[in-house]
Amino acid sequence: MKIKIQGLGRPRLENEVNPDDKIPDLKKKIEDVLGADDFPVGTQILVNRGQYLMCERSTLRELNVVEDGKIGVFSAPKMRISMPKQVWACAAGSSSPAPVTPVISSVV
């Protein structure tokens, strides 16, 4: 399926992904498309329809990424992240992320 990838300060690009890809697979594709200098895999923060894509065991299908969906990509060194600790891990015994409301604020 095709999705649109929007990096901070970058034009939106289309990329082909498999619904059964996991977050590390998507991050590698994003690094290849947007460049390892600005968006290395280890610093990427992905957002889909207002939800952080943090659970690395989940597939894109499980995280509700759909055909023609838009994925926002931020690089951690350029952003300060303030969110509850449980958002960084999947809910116990589930492949879905824990339901939380994270907050992003820019570093000035």
UniProtKB/TrEMBL annotation:
Domain Ubiquitin-like: from-to ranges: 1-71
GO molecular function: polyubiquitin modification-dependent protein binding; proteasome binding; ubiquitin binding
GO biological process, any: proteasome-mediated ubiquitin-dependent protein catabolic process
Domain of life of the organism encoding this protein: Eukaryota
GO cellular component annotations of the record: cytosol; nucleoplasm
Region annotation Disordered: where it falls in the sequence: 1-20
Alphabetized InterPro entries for the sequence: Ubiquitin-like_dom, Ubiquitin-like_domsf
SUPFAM superfamilies from the UniProt entry: Ubiquitin-like
Gene: LOC110701341
Protein name stated in the entry: Ubiquitin-like domain-containing protein
Bias type Basic and acidic residues, positions: 11-20
